[in-house]
Design a protein that fits this description.
The structure is a homodimer. The first copy, chain A, is α/β, with parallel strands linked by helices. Chain A has 39 helices and 31 strands. Chain A has an eight-stranded mixed sheet. In chain A, strands 24-25-26-27-28-29-30-31 form an eight-stranded parallel β-barrel, surrounded by six helices. In chain A, strands 1-2-5-3-4 form a five-stranded antiparallel sheet. The first copy, chain A, is elongated, with a radius of gyration of 33 Å. The N terminus and C terminus of chain A are likely disordered.
């Protein structure tokens, strides 16, 4: 093998050994040109911009290597190799040779042989996808150990017990992960051995015990797979690589990706890295660290350290960890080195870094770094800290936070003044305030949640198998594990409230209860957890609005006053400081005020840079007022049908049952003053801002009773000989007559307006009269009339003719000039593809992406979300529900066509969106890119939309990569 | 006015007076370049290719003028002027001057003054749209008459009575048409005058009587309009022009256009022509003529003549007319001249011409010509006659007939052998055999038809107000009028069976009955009319298949034998004769055989030239066999859900109610042999031809009882204390569970296949096993698997994976090679816009234009056709239902996108359509243009589709205008 000079080792590959590292993409492409796919990259060849190809871990190992940091040597197998494997079911032909060459290089660098009998080279084989998927995929450590090299390792480490423990760990891990043997078989054998030799714990087992255990484990492998444990080290490597590839497509990995909106197509890279050992004695150890506190955003080193342990022990959260301060007491040299490297990394990445490291007999090794996940509050604070430290500018700060994080911060918190029964206080792992019924396993969490219960999942510790239950729960509480445990990492990622390490809890899943002191909480009991403080309460606890929400809703002054001041000087002395802000320092600890200031500065920057305006969907004065406080620049959708509910439903019923024009006109006349008053209230709140009023959209029979219900009720009473009135029979007849097989595709929207005489006219008259009244009162109402469900320009022409006539009439009568633009929803595919024609009659378009999604896909939200959607997510037809985030390829393509066609007819046409996608972060970026002028969303989403519109503008203008 | 030299009279206008007539469009455009719109064309400037601008009448008057035929001079006001008027509500500023100049020219040509007091110039003002709209719009004759010029006319005509009669006609027509005065007021005054002077009929009134009547009429005008009848001739002209413009938008005109699919946007031209008089005595007259018999296709002059009458009298069908043979006896000179001109015109137009003429004191004037409407049989026969006479080639012949006409000829006819009660025999005006209940007015016809009755409208004569009832009726029977009467022309246009001039009928609309001899037929009685023979029968008459259908279904030999032979020699000696045909001459009159031969030759030519293949939609062997006989080249759609009706419905019910996988698999296993047998039968009939099988499409709950019905039934029995079985309750629960608010947008198509395990698999297995069985029997089955309702390529990928596995399995087990392409429906907008992705997984696309229309427009056929569709047609949103003819602008745009995108991924991808549009003539032209490879339609539409596919190919390759 050493003599081989494979084709791929010529050309560019020669230069890399000179340290002349070519930059990622061009290098990669030069290989492509030669038609010799390069599937293996040495760490010296990688860099952080090659995440697509090398995965996050591999790319960052490359980056650290070139920064001169102490990284154990190794190489990365590309995601391209994984994709090849996924599509073909076998590895690309070139891979084996390339791996051989890379191993040979590794052996050369150390002058050690993989599986050699003295100082053997051992490697870890780890997954590493583009996006972090903590705990989702497989890792195999100690690869290279066999009956021969275990002796070499014992000699090298001068520790026979360590060598045999490493070997049994390999067989156990390899057996479970690579060979698919039930893990309990190994665990049971381990327990049996401990029992047999009277060992209290793993560490009490001697080298001889472990040697015997290795034989037991090998017997298990032989029995379960009908083949002996592979002694050939290279066979171990190859099998582990395939196991990692396969782990990309496990169910839990797919569930995670769906939740995180990661494409199944990406595949994972595989990192093969020489092993270093944190379990060689008290001068060894392993840990994880963050360059800032990922939960609160506080500056300073933060992490967990486990002496004499392998890395997986920390992440698994099985043993309680030491803090970094404790590590400093144990190993000051390694600690200082770690802090120096952390500073280097943060200055290099200009962001919070998440680090995994191992100390092997006093020598520090960096195993991984990446930009660290963080809580929402930390994201805002850290971004502003980095601005004030001069590391990034405001555009980058804006790019480092997300609408989802802002949304998270707007959640209410527990009422501090309310009486509470504190059960315990543990580690705050993911902020928020959650109240729910305690459940003790994942299936119960999912089942109860599906029935509409709000649940808190209580576990000793979580593992990837709990993912389904974690998603279904409002909060997660564990008795064990630190802030970097599985539960903590996953919960932060999902924005779910989480408290971990509550060791006061005695959790008994079998009995479905937990005990704290003399309190017993059984399944179904209400508990409350505070993910910001780590507190756990018994029973219900009332919640209050968040300080960030208070800031958004009531303004900076009130929010800062309530927070008690104490903002650090740095917050408002950075390069982008707002000199108009003068903050009175108060008595608070400053954390809340810092957060408010960070949100304020970033959101203000978003407002300054964004191109998209943000309007709100509001149907009445109250909603409009709230929306305006939250920053809405108008109302993009007032759904007038909501104004016909309650008492007024009777009037619509009268309209439907009207037997002649006179009766119909009477019903309409009764509605006019009510409807006019609705608009007076709305326009008053939106004084000076545009208010788009959509004429009535749903089928009229939605205001009538349900057919089956009414039929059964009447049939039953008839059968019993009870009275059925003529009015009821008449109502049933009307319900039967207007019943539609597919009301979504029936007589609604403009069709209704063109069919029921006087209906749209009533609404237009109410709008015009309300506007006239306010103008006479000296106000500045700016209504716009929006016609729903337009499919053809002819429909809009007809409505426009009548509307203009009525507006002229009101204008003449009231003696005020009325400028009321008329436009329409674009919510049917036909409207999109004939938008050039429709634009002749429309002064503006508003995309109704809910309906457009329904008709483009041909499914109705009501019918399908509860039926085949979960299956479709499972099958990978969707990454995310198209009702949540706009389907850019399908629905988005129609939006883009309509924009282009509409502007071709009327370049100055108004363009907005009022579907629920208007408040969805990812969709907002699409709407920005496609050239809309505004998005409109529910009032509570307005701040999120403002932020994301700003982010979209920054991303477009700077091509920011959004690494945060 | 004469001195005016308007801007438009310079440049190109100068050349026209030299007879240097520029060709239409370029001439028109040169005016546009000068920005001086030309709204008025002298007849010497027009030609037959300017129909868009000058309307059909104006263009043909221009054409005849340049052929040197005797056309009374005049000019045409363009459709552009009309469109301007429609959009602005007033005439373009330039029009008045241009009309003045044209009138001045006319006065110069005749040396007469409009409204002059000696030899006054009188003009007719007539509408003339691009497409003929017989009787739909207004005409005003004798314009230019006033108190002064009436004396001049009397002197010129040497007939005082004629002059005053003309004047009273002008006031009457102008009053009604231009001034909007109720026509009865004039009619009553006329009757009163006749009564007062004791006149039996109009002709008994003397000049003095008429003079007094004119005063009465003028008084009516003054009373009704508060203004005197306008004496200024130019004011009369201008008002008449506006009246014609306005008549474009009357309700009856819009109804007619909708029926005929003429755009409301076209507008009408107005022809102002110097009057000639057919009512100047016995040496005068007026008539209409066809160069061939428009009903039967027989060669030779054919027409109606009314001596001493104005033209409108003929068309109105009020007086019974003479034949042209009778005219020859009265006025041989004019007759000969007319025949000479008819020959000139037919040779010039190379088609059947429809002519209006007037003889004024022995001088023949041509008032109009156009390519004449004809019956379906005549269309085929005339086209072949013209081929055999060397006037046109087969491509043109093909272009001269339509699928609608062929469809018409496929109608059944009355059984000649059945006993019948003949009431009378009259003129066969529009062929076909209609049986229905007699009704006597248009509202009744519409009301009864709406209730599902088949009706025959019986009228003395029809007028444009009857149009609604005519459309609603299966047949039309009138007591008066000739083959060119309103009833005859309109019925032929609609393809409705019609018998006219049945003067044996004594129709009493008020009593709602008619009498023939001693038989009285009252409203609701069944009658039968034969539009081919003119026979009217009492009671029901059985019908038999048409000879053309027999030809199509059983072949040429059988059909000709049944027709009795007698084909004219010319039929098979033309330039395109088929030398392989040898027809035995029999005893028939040859008309039927001639028709069969004409259809055969034209359809054979269509088959030879068409690019589109024609498949059929067939769900079973019987349909497939019929389709194949009718020329289908495969099955484009087998709807497998139709195979689960009847007894098998129970099996689907079992499938739905299955509580566990075993029960489900049992239900599926029971279906497998049945489904396999379905395919064996189908593939056997289609041996050697492709058969596209669509996997089950509708929601499964369509196989269950209706929710409301079942709920009411159970509730009623519960209330009465009757037994309700557990099975019924279980069924109700299942129905409730699977109920969808919008089943069209629910769990159906591929969604069902991906949700119900084993369902699609069963169908694919049945297809594969059926194919394998037939291959082993030496047959050549060519199944294709089609997946419905694909929205994303992922769905198709998933189905394809499973289907390929099953096909491989069957292939391996049965030991036969199975090549079964897998493709999908494109019936969702998303499929259309992501067709590039879908084509990766699809070997073919079949456009499901029914569903695509539903989702593109966002309406479901079931819900909307009965609700707002008629209103939408009325309002002009549709010209025609988009379910009938494809909406090219909206739905068609998506089809075109999908074709382009699909081919970009897979250039050789199969492309067809299987929606109902596949059999619609207009839609077929679109599918041809957009590049599909086949259309699939119901078996009975196959011949129509073959013909239209041929016509589409000819139209594309030759740019044929389709004037017939």
């Amino acid at each position: 093998m050493e003599g081989a000079n494979p084709a791929w080792a010529v050309g560019p590959a020669a230069t890399k050994l000179d340290g002349n590292r070519p930059r990622g993409d061009s290098y990669y492409h030069s290989w492509k040109v030669l038609n010799v796919p390069k599937y293996v990259y040495n760490f010296t060849e990688g860099n952080k911009d090659l995440k697509d190809l090398l995965g996050g871990k591999g790319a960052n190992l490359g980056e650290m290597t070139s920064l001169g940091l102490p990284v154990p040597p190794g190489f990365t197998i590309t995601t391209e190799a994984c994709r090849y494997y996924m599509h073909h079911g076998y590895n690309p032909a070139e891979l084996a040779d390339q791996v051989s060459t890379a191993i040979t290089q590794l052996e050369g660098q150390f002058n050690r042989q993989l599986g050699g009998d003295s100082e053997p080279l051992l490697v870890s084989v780890r997954s590493g996808a583009k996006f972090s998927m903590p705990g989702m995929m497989e890792t195999v450590l100690n690869v290279g150990l066999n009956d021969k090299s275990v002796l070499g390792l014992a000699k090298f480490a001068n520790d026979e017990r360590f060598a045999w423990d490493s070997y049994r760990r390999l067989i156990q891990m390899f057996g479970k992960t690579v060979l698919g043997i039930e893990g309990d078989l190994f665990a049971d054998a381990l327990e049996a051995k401990k029992k047999a030799v009277g060992a209290a714990s793993d560490v009490d087992l001697t080298a001889e015990d472990l040697k015997a255990l290795v034989e037991d484990f090998k017997a298990i492998v032989l029995r379960e797979t009908s083949a002996p444990f592979p002694q050939e080290p290279r066979a171990q490597v190859d099998a582990a690589i395939v196991a990692v590839f396969n782990s990309w497509n496990t169910e839990r990995a797919r569930i995670y990706r769906r939740r995180e909106r990661i494409s199944d197509e990406l595949g994972t890279a595989v990192n093969v890295q020489s092993m270093v050992f944190g379990n060689l004695g008290p001068d060894s150890g392993t840990g994880v660290a963050f360059t800032r506190d990922p939960a609160t955003g506080h500056p300073g080193a933060y992490g967990d350290y486990l002496p004499n342990a392998q890395g997986e022990d920390v992440v698994a959260g099985i043993r309680n960890t030491l803090s970094l301060d404790d590590m400093a007491k144990i190993d000051k040299v390694s600690y200082d080195e770690l802090r120096r490297i952390m500073t280097t990394l943060e200055n290099h990445y200009r962001d919070l870094c998440d680090i995994e490291f191992t100390v092997e007999r006093g020598k520090l090794w960096m195993l991984q770094t990446r930009v660290g996940k963080r809580t929402a509050a930390a994201a805002f604070k850290i971004a502003i800290q980095l601005v004030d430290e001069g590391l990034i500018n405001m555009d980058t700060a804006l790019d480092r936070v997300t609408g989802a994080q802002l949304s998270n911060l707007m959640f209410p918190q527990f009422d501090a003044a309310a009486p509470k029964t504190l059960l315990t206080k543990a580690m705050a792992a993911s902020p928020g305030a959650a109240v729910g019924q305690a459940v003790f396993d994942s299936p119960t969490a999912q089942a109860w949640a599906a029935q509409g219960h709000t649940v808190i999942l209580v576990r000793r510790e979580t593992n990837p198998d709990d993912l389904g239950g974690m998603i279904a729960s409002a909060g997660i509480l564990t008795a064990r594990g630190g802030k970097t445990s599985h539960a903590a990492v996953v919960a932060r990622g999902m924005g779910t409230t989480c408290v971990v390490g509550a060791d006061a809890l005695d959790v008994d899943p079998a009995a479905r209860l937990f005990r704290v002191g003399d309190v017993t909480v059984v399944e179904g009991d209400l508990i409350a957890i505070d993910g910001t403080t780590g507190e756990v309460f018994l029973g219900n606890v009332p919640v209050v609005a968040s300080p960030v929400f208070q800031y958004l809703d009531e303004g900076l002054d009130k929010a800062l006053a309530a927070a008690g001041g104490g903002v650090r000087e740095a917050v408002y002395q950075g390069e982008d400081r707002d000199p108009t802000l003068v903050i009175s320092k108060g008595q608070g600890d400053g954390a809340t005020a810092e957060l408010i200031m960070a949100v304020h500065r970033i959101l203000s920057h978003a407002d300054a840079v964004r191109r998209l305006k943000v309007r709100a969907n509001a149907d009445n004065g109250e909603d409009a007022a709230r929306a305006r406080r939250l920053g809405a620049q108008g109302v993009g959708l007032c759904r007038t049908e909501h104004q016909f509910l309650g008492d007024r439903r009777k009037l619509i019923e009268r309209l439907i049952l009207a037997h002649n024009p006179a009766a119909r006109e009477e019903a309409l006349a009764a509605l006019l003053p009510l409807q006019r008053q609705d608009f007076v209230e709305l326009f008053t709140e939106m004084d000076g801002l545009h208010t788009t009023v959509r004429l009535i959209d749903p089928p009229l029979h939605e205001f009538l009773p349900d057919l089956t219900h009414l039929s059964v009720s009447i049939a039953r009473r008839e059968a019993l000989g009870e009275d059925v009135t003529d009015a009821e029979r008449e109502l049933l007849a009307a319900v039967e007559k207007s019943h539609e097989s597919n009301p979504m595709l029936g007589l609604r929207g403009v069709r209704l307006g063109l069919t029921v005489p006087g209906l749209f006219a009533l609404q237009v008259r109410a709008i015009a009269e309300a506007a006239a009244q306010l103008i006479r009162e000296g106000k500045d109402p700016k209504p716009e009339v929006m016609v729903p469900l337009i499919g053809s320009y002819v429909e809009l022409d007809l409505v426009r003719d009548e509307a203009e006539r009525i507006i002229r009439e009101v204008s003449d009568r009231e003696g005020v000039a009325l400028d009321i633009p008329i436009g329409c929803m674009i919510e049917l595919p036909r409207a999109a593809v004939t938008a050039d024609e429709i634009a002749r009659a429309a002064e503006f378009f508003s995309f109704g992406t809910n309906d457009l999604t329904q008709t483009t896909w041909g499914f109705s939200r009501d019918d399908v979300e509860g039926s085949f959607f979960s299956n479709y997510m499972e099958l990978g037809v969707f990454q995310v529900s198209p009702f949540e985030t706009i389907d850019t390829k399908g629905v988005g393509s129609l939006v883009a066509q309509a924009v282009k066609l509409g502007q071709s007819t009327r370049p100055e046409i108004g363009l907005g969106v009022c579907g629920e996608h208007g408040g969805d972060p990812e969709s907002i970026h699409f709407f920005n890119a496609v050239g809309l002028q505004y998005v409109s969303c529910s009032p509570f989403r307005v701040p999120v939309a403002r932020l994301e519109a700003g982010r979209a503008a920054v991303a477009v203008s700077e091509g920011a990569s959004g690494t945060a």
